[in-house]
Amino acid sequence: MPVFTPLFTLQFIVIVFWDIGLSLFNLHTPNLKKGSVVPKGHPGAGGLWPEYVPPKEGDSRGSCPALNALANHGVLPRDGKNIPFTKLTDTVHASYNFAPSFCKITSMLSANMLGRKYSTDTVDLAELDLHNAIEHDASLMRQDVYHGKDMGSPHLPFVKALLSSASGKAQDGSAALTLDDVARFAAKRRMDAQKENPEFSLGFAHKMIGSSNASGLLTIFGGRVKDLEPFLVEERLSEGWEPRAMSRKGLTILALNASTVIKVESMTEKMVADAER
To answer: Which of 10, 58, 86, 102 is buried most, with the most CB atoms less than 10 Å from its CB?
Structure first.
């Protein structure tokens, strides 16, 4: 877990207030226009992503499909190694339209938990899988570390089960995941993992991290199965894809939690409790 030194605590508080300010700004300004969510000049602008190349032996990949996909497209270094934490912040913000406050606090927490300095140090993607610090049990797309599986590759049976559970429709009529779909699958993963993993642990903080990750599928991808399938199976961004979150300053921590994360987590917990009665 993070070490909250006085300096880190102050930085954390400043970013929280920054996030609130960005959230208020978004409420009073129009969204970005379709086709311009990824900034002009950044890889992926206008939906034109660099060539997808699957990772080769020796490349570093972790359990985050969003970061893996950026490495597979060469937006981050293709080998997934020696990436400055500051570059993670800037690249994720520009590529997925998460607010800069969201991206900075995530990268800062990661650096803190790895015992590194955010402003000057680097990280390999696989190093972000520090168990029960950043990576956690009952992931939607990975088996638990206890089972000895490679965290750098998705567990396809989980991915296919999640996508096949989609009960909603996107605006274009294609299949889409809903809040209920995601929460139901998350509840199943938690219950199954607890039964199958004798070392299972999932505290409140990691439950919220898991629900935040799940919420990204609904907000950044709009739940659209046709975009999520290549993203989760191959860790590839579809040709022409751009983030569905179109707030002018990006999706903030406050907005994501208020609109989706709290709902996903409360629904998941209720489903688990109902099943255990």
So the answer is: 102
The SS3 call for residue 114 is coil
pLDDT digits (tens, 9 = 90+) for 84-105: 999 999 999 999 999 999 999 9
How far apart are the C-alpha atoms of 229 and 238, rounded to whole Å? 9
Q: Both tokens of residue 272? A: 């688990």
Query: What is the spatial distance between Cα 169 and Cα 162, in angstroms, rounded to a whole number?
Result: 15
Cβ–Cβ contacts within 10 Å for residue 186, how many?
A: 26
Q: What is the pLDDT of residues 165-214, one digit of tens each?
A: 999 999 999 999 999 999 999 999 999 999 999 999 999 999 999 999 99
| Helical axes 204-219 vs 262-276, angle rounded to 10° | 120
Q: What is the DSSP letter of 257?
A: I
Q: Dump strand ranges (E) for 129-274.
A: 168-169, 175-176
Task: Pull the structure tokens for residue 112.
Answer: 């803190």
Q: Which pairs count as long-range contacts for 82-91, CB under 8 Å and 24+ apart, including other chains?
A: 82/122, 82/123, 82/124, 83/122, 83/123, 83/124, 83/125, 84/120, 84/121, 84/122, 85/110, 85/111, 85/116, 85/118, 85/119, 85/121, 85/122, 85/123, 86/118, 86/119, 88/123
Per the CB < 8 A criterion, the answer to whether 50 and 43 are in contact is yes
Residue 243 tokens read as 């983030």
Q: How far apart are the first and last CA of the chain?
A: 32
Please give the C-alpha separations between residue 16 and each of 26, 58, 104, 163, 175, in angstroms, as whole numbers: 15, 37, 10, 33, 35
